[in-house]
Amino acid sequence: MFKYIAIRVLQAVPVLLGITIASFLLIHLVPGEPARIELGSRAPLSEVLALRRQLGLDRPFLDQYWTFLRGVLTFHFGTSFALHQSAGGIIRSKIGVTAWLMLYSLAISMVLTVPLGILAAIKRDRPADHAIRIIGMTLFVMPTFWLGLLLSLIFGLILGVLPTSGYQQGFVGALRSLTLPALALSLAMTPIFVRSLRASVIQALDKGYVEAARARGFSERRVLYRHVLRNASISTVTLVGLTMGGLLSGTLIVENVFALPGLGSQLVSSVAARDYPMVQALVIVLGWGVVLINLVTDLTYAAIDPRVRL
Amino acid sequence: MQWGASIFARRGSLAAIGVAALMVVAGCGSSSKPSSTASGSHASFYTGGAPGGTPVKGGKIVVDESETPNTMDPLAINTTDGGDAVRQICEGLVESVSNSKEAKPDLATSWTISPNGTTYTFHIREGVKFSNGEPLTGQDVVYSLERWKLPIATYGAVLNQYVKRVSLASPMTVVIQLKRPYPAFLDYLTLAPLAMVSKNAVQHDGEHAFGLHPVCTGPFTIKSSAPGYSSFTMVRNPYYWRTGQPYVNEVVYNVIPEANARVLAVRSGAATIDLGVPFSQAESLKAATAGARLLIEPYSSSSVALFNSASGPLAEVNVRKALNYATPREAIIKSVFKGLGTPSNDFPTNQLDYYDASVPSFSYDIAKAKSLLKASKVPHGFSTSILIYSGEPNSLLIASILQSAWAKIGVNLKIQSAESTTAIADVVKGDYQIGLFTPEEIVPESYPPDLDAYYYYDGAPGTGSFYKSARVTALVEKATSTTSEAVRSKAFREIQRIANWEDAAFLNVAFVPQLNLVGTSLHGFTDQPTSYYNLREAWVE
Fold first, then answer.
1. Share of chain A above pLDDT 70, in %
2. Which of B163, B198, B190, B168 is nearest to B178 (CA)?
3. CB A291 within 8 A of CB A283
4. Which A residues 90-119 touch B at CB under 8 Å?
5. Helices (H) and strands (E) in chain A, counts
6. C-alpha span between B472 and B458 (Å, rounded)
7. What is the pLDDT of residue B48?
8. Which residues 197-226 of A are in CB contact (within 8 Å) with B?
9. β B163-170/B119-124 pair status
């Protein structure tokens, strides 16, 4: 297993290198530049050029990229142009919010997926199954930002049980602040997982070992949760891993709608400010996040299915 | 009220504003300065919060803003919301207070201006302390004023053209010598970037640290801020010189980019103030809304498009006039601003000093538009494009209305959208043909029109305005340097008429007001069209 992990980490290196090149090129090629934005459009050209020099933006492209890459290799991501603070420090202060948001939404998804997927499978083609699929599809096609606002309206304003936006400190405060955003994200993903699990459970229910388990007198509950679910969840786990990238991009939207101080909202404002060091640092960190999530998915896969050898 | 440092300093625009100023603007139609207006009436610069009541000490105000400030150092603040926030912490020599467009004493108790208008002598208020307990001295004032020379100074480029020298005549008397008369100088001293700061604090903490925790004399001081100013908290300044103020203990600023989320926050009671409610919510919020009140306030901006008149068909005045006549302003006001607006006849606003309501605005007249086009070098029409910020539904709606309206006169309008920073960069470079901006993007800095005249009527670099007229340039020079109020008034009115009517330099669409939503527990909150809101007199039940 450790050898497997080491190999996967090494395999991630060229992926991350590609990400650094892509993000560096894209942010530098987009019109608008940090010095002009920082000083305002009315600043004289001489001052803009002076700030460009100060920020090292007048150096050749490759030189700038190499400086950036050297920093990454030593975990120094440079100083944010807009905030004048260490980019790494800003990321450290905000990564918790994003990480908790993703985990929370994933947890909500799993809590909803398992019972709904099984229910839809065992009540196949009956009203409960249809209801689950129709509601699921309706939630799936709703834009996340709209869903977020709707949840905010219902639970924040009408019922008044959760905050409409913002992030409160402390465990309880954070939990309350992240509930609606996590719900918005999970309701967008859950229908896919439910459909996948439903199909896998239906398939698994037809297998011989299920009949054998029933013949041995096991309760239906035990058959479903100890035998069927474990086998059926493999494809769903893979699907969860594949959608993590989508979840990450979803946090960008949700963090802006709910004004959460996470990496997503920071990325949006950094791109608008052409804050090169911040954008590049965020992309690296988020890229690492996706690689890590995929690794965890594979390990989970192996944990569920003993036949899988890493 | 929102104050904008620059059309190009704003990012992430909003789509707010309303019109309630109609009645007020009508009453304010005189072009004279407030003090000389016979009727004495002016736009009723807001009135926030429930009227009446005796101030109660304590409590908290939560302000939801749309964008993060770039810094809390007043010198370098270049965003609307940031300027409002900083002005609660830092004060200037003079201030602009509600219902008056004139500068009033703040940290300066009095001042004299030499007869030739080049020497200003300020007497600094005694007994004022900074938020760290140190006394405000004349040296702090001199230091603060000389910071304008720093590259990060928001108004450095303009003010350095005028300011010759700053010196101390006595420990608490500061003299500012100008290179030439600048009648708007006193009013510019009311602006946030020109606030006074503690010299010791800047030198001790360094510019960067000072920007995180400025030490000033205002009613509040920063207690804490999240990285990137996504939220920050101000507490009462224990050394504040105005006895008994501020009333509230704490002001919390939250940055919530999504406009509808800000509305929900106020309606749910999580926030007290939301400046900039979307027009789409106007009708629903006008009806009784428990716990919140919609304020439709005279604002200092307008929906406007810039013409790149440097070249092409738009360089011709007949073409620009034709487009103006072909613009259905009433339809735009009705669809986009929900009827809360008036056709505009001035760039950028009707709230500035010397605004002349008698300058005509272009009526919707297709026949006239066609005849003007026929007399131009493009009698059969032409193709052009309009640049809008992406993700701006109001801009898209306006552009779509223009597209279908102008098609009637043979003008094929292509709508181009770009992310705000990119769009601004394109406009500054001149890489656009028509640029449409939502009201927040075009907001004058203060009541005197001098700065806007310099930037937009005189084609100063960095604004994207390529309008240049020898007559207007001469008038701008005269208006911004004369000490005669009568000459100034006449010159600015003439500038308005020539640029907006005779030359049709801009596509002025509508004057629009701002929609603000405040909690009903809020009292004493004052805001102004071309200045800052005031929280030192605000209190909550």
1. 98
2. B163
3. no
4. 90, 93-94
5. 13, 0
6. 7
7. 46
8. none
9. unpaired
Task: Please indicate if any CB of chain A lies within 8 Å of the CB of B126.
Answer: no
The residue that leads in pLDDT, A242 or B521, is B521
* Complex ipTM > 0.85: no
User: Is A149 in contact with B260 (Cβ distance < 8 A)?
Assistant: yes
* Structure-block tokens of residue B435: 């640029």
A269 at B interface, C-beta within 8 A: yes
Give the position of tokens 């005694």. Answer: B126
Nearest C-alpha in B relative to A278: B228
Q: How many CB pairs under 8 A join A and B?
A: 136
Residues 6+ apart with CB under 8 A from B123: B108, B109, B110, B111, B172, B173
| Residue B247 binned pLDDT confidence (cut-offs 50, 70, 90) | very high
What pTM did the predictor assign? 0.85
- How many CA atoms lie within 13 Å of A135's alpha carbon, on the beta-carbon side? 13
Whole-number pLDDT of residue A52: 83
The one-letter amino acid at B454: Y
Q: What is the DSSP letter of B480?
A: T
Is beta strand B382-389 parallel, antiparallel or unpaired with respect to B434-437?
parallel
H/E stretch holding B388:
strand B382-389
Indicate if the pLDDT at residue B45 is higher than 50. Answer: no
Subunit contact A259:B230, Cβ cutoff 8 A: yes
Q: Is A51 helix (H, G, I), strand (E, B) or coil?
A: helix
Residue B374's CB is within 10 A of a number of other CB atoms, namely 14
What sign does the CA torsion over A147, A184, B224, B60 have?
positive
Confidence of residue B52 (pLDDT cuts 50, 70, 90): low
Q: What is the mean pLDDT of residues A280-296?
A: 84
Q: Which residue has the higher pLDDT, B226 or B256?
A: B256
The stretch B186-204 carries a mean pLDDT of 93
Mean pLDDT of chain B: 85
Structure tokens at B500: 């907006």
**Helix, strand or coil for residue A139?**
helix
Sign of CA dihedral B408, B410, B414, B420: negative
* B490's tokens: 């006449």
Q: Are residues B262 and A259 in contact, defined by beta-carbon separation less than 8 angstroms? A: no
| Cβ–Cβ < 8 Å for B503, B320 | yes
Task: Say if B430 is an interface residue toward chain A (CB within 8 Å).
Answer: no
* Residue numbers of B between 210 and 239 with CB closer than 8 Å to A: 211, 226-228, 230-231
Taking CB atoms and an 8 Å limit, are B8 and A41 in contact across chains?
yes
- A261 to B226: CB separation less than 8 angstroms, yes or no: yes
Of all residues in chain A, what percent carry a pLDDT higher than 90?
34
Q: At B160, is the pLDDT very low, low, confident or very high (cuts 50, 70, 90)?
A: confident
Whether residue A23 contacts residue A283, with contact meaning beta carbons closer than 8 Å, is answered with yes
Residues 6+ apart with CB under 8 A from A212: none
CA distance B444 to B423: 20
Cα angle for residues B470, B475, B481 (degrees, 5° grid) = 130
pLDDT digits (tens, 9 = 90+) for A15-52: 888 888 887 887 788 777 777 777 776 677 777 888 88
- φ and ψ of B89, to 5 deg: -105, -40
Distance CA B326, CA B346 (A): 17
